[in-house]
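Q: Give me the 3D complex with adenosine monophosphate.
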Amino acid sequence: MRDILPPESARWRRFGEVFVELVEAAGYGQLISPLLEDLGVFTRIGEATDVVTKEMYDFVDKGDRHVALRPEMTASVCRAFAQHRPTTPWKVYYLGPNFRYEKPQRGRYRQFEQVGVEVLGGDDPYIDVEVIALAWEFYRRLGLRQVTLVVNSLGEPDDRARFVEALRGHLEAAGDALSEQGRTTLTRNPLRVLDSRHGDDKAVVAGAPPIADFYSEGAARHFEDVQAGLQALDIPFRVEPGLVRGLDYYRRTIFEFQGATLDSAQNALGGGGRYDGLVEALGGPPTPGVGFALGLDRTLLACADEGVFDCRPRPLDAFVVDVTGGREALTLTAELRAAGLAVDRAFDNRSMKAQMKVADRSGAEHAVIVGDDELAAGTVVVKPLRSDGTQLTIPRSTLIAHLTGTETR
Ligand code: AMP
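A: Here is the predicted complex, encoded as structure tokens.
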């Protein structure tokens, strides 16, 4: 878990702002849900999911409730839906931290930040397309270019079950040709062998029956419609039959956004899919759902790699230097801030030289200097710090107009 210091924290906030602007303009409202939920909310995600079995920060609270810090937010959205029964389609977005006890490394942290959307209560393949298109546009607005969209369909639950059985048969027949890790994964969740990075497993998986052979007519059509929708919006994608994704609740459409500049183990910038059974599993009515979650930490790494989204905080308009004791700085700063200017000042009544050094370091456009002569004359000195302009002495009463560029000449 990390501290995010200024100015890096400004990029984090801006990341959220860009996201909120985008999704609110598409009809999504924010769901603010608790960081802690009943453990059961997350175990519904799937007993064969590492996120649930190995990586959760769970504990028993003082009231003997078994709770967990959220490892992701889709389950919370579905829990909230089951609890409040809003009208559908329910289009919500979220942003905030999640917690997973993973091995920390570049792009993988124990507390990490996600933004995401979910649409509950609609089956239309064009909802899947809307959701994917929003994520695509978000990356575009950040300035990222080296992002690849991969999609797959896991079919209906029955299709998926038949496929998993056929896959299990194929993998079991391969026996020792699988890596040791692959054999362990097979006993827990055969699907996860499909995205194994081990060379031996990849060779075995290459000969496995393709999932598309198991699609029912409805699932096949749904997937075709999703692809046609993406094409209609000119969003490039690749169908990746081996894409399974970490969480067990997905059915039909799944997708992932991969960053070309990141290590392959951490190259998923975000992803999502359809989870038509999750609301029901959490005690709600049968409700289809689809959404995505994008990781902030990793996406910002990709932005740094591509040299984009280098947002800096707004520079200060002025830095007030007062060598008459500090009272002038107190009132001037307050007046300028009240006028909407970004202003800082020095404290502790230090020397002119020391205060000017801080002013320079602050990155402010101007130093506003008050010495004994200025105080007596009702003037201030305005010194440009970031350009070659000349230093001026002006009446204090015209300072705001001068700094905002609204003075009459
Ligand atoms: P998931 O909820 O596992 O589908 O993850 C969605 C996105 O969240 C990933 O593509 C990552 O960008 C991000 N993410 C997931 N786990 C972590 C982690 N431990 N550290 C940083 N980012 C993560």
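A quick observation: The chain has 16 helices and 16 strands.
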